[in-house]
Amino acid sequence: MDQNELKAQVGAEAVKYVKDGMIVGLGTGSTVRYMVDALGKRVQEEGLHIVGVTTSTRTTKQAESLGITIKDIDDVDHIDLCIDGADQVDDDFNGIKGGGGALLWEKIVNNASVKKIWIVDQSKLCHRIGAFGVPVEVIPFGAQHVFNRFVKKGYKPQWRMTDDNKKYRTDENNYIIDLKVGEIADPHALAEDLIHTVGVVEHGLFLNRVDMVIVGRDNGPEVLQAK
Ligand SMILES: O=C[C@H](O)[C@H](O)[C@H](O)COP(=O)(O)O
């Protein structure tokens, strides 16, 4: 199976966990896109009643176009189930997210969710996260100083750029700096350091934040439960 088929496979598998009446957190990314399509199909064909809370304007647009009711996160008091993608997941279920720039809203939705599922194709699994750069969302004011600080710390920062060579802007109009740190020996220590850096809004290290990972494999989806 090619990567897109694996993404479609886990997208279809994940929506089986959505039950009538649920408030569902909808992640962002190319894998989630398949999941939202599959969820839209259930809404249209089975009359499934759910409310979605999205993690990006992209996902809002897609979900609404499929007839999924969307509410603002502050108009719900909790989210029953969040289904999101990830860029890397390690043996301890630590993840890196934010390859699509949605890490801030994703972490807020993750925080408000009772149950959390990630959907990934098999290429995303690793022993230690870090080969995929860690995205860090920073406010524009003084962002170059934050960048310079990361250089001094040896975090090998790179500005996230758009195709037309402008600094990428998130849904909150912030910048993203990707840290090309390589395999991370202590992700908790790095997370602590990043979140205490003035100017940093959030980072893409998602540690102890998932209950189940559905992995797309050639012989069918594999469900991994967090210990
Ligand atoms: O900001 C984007 C999200 O964290 C995505 O869930 C993550 O980057 C994985 O995306 P994809 O399914 O496209 O690989």
Describe what you observe in this structure.
By secondary structure, the chain is of the alpha/beta class. The protein is 29% helix and 25% strand. The chain is built from six helices and 14 strands. The strands form three sheets. A seven-stranded mixed sheet has the order 3-2-1-4-7-13-14. A four-stranded antiparallel sheet has the order 9-10-8-11. The two termini are 29 Å apart.
Name of the CATH class of the largest domain: Alpha Beta
Helix count, per DSSP?
Answer: 6
What radius of gyration results from the CA coordinates? Answer: 17 Å
Point out poorly predicted stretches. Answer: none
How many E strands? 14
Strand content: 25-35%
Tell me, what's the shape? globular
Q: If you consult CATH, what is the topology of the largest domain?
A: Rossmann fold
| Biggest sheet features | 7 strands, mixed
Question: So, CATH architecture of the largest domain?
Answer: 3-Layer(aba) Sandwich
Distance between the termini: 29 Å
- What is the H-and-E element order? HEHEHEEEEHEEHEEHEEEE
Q: How would you state the average pLDDT, rounded? A: 98
Q: Which molecules are bound besides the chains?
A: ribose-5-phosphate
Q: What count of domains describes the coordinates?
A: 2
Helix percentage range: 25-40%
Class based on secondary structure composition and strand pairing: alpha/beta
Strand order of the largest sheet: 3-2-1-4-7-13-14
Organism: Limosilactobacillus secaliphilus
Keywords: Isomerase
Family: Belongs to the ribose 5-phosphate isomerase family.
Binding site for substrate: 28-31, 84-87, 97-100, 124
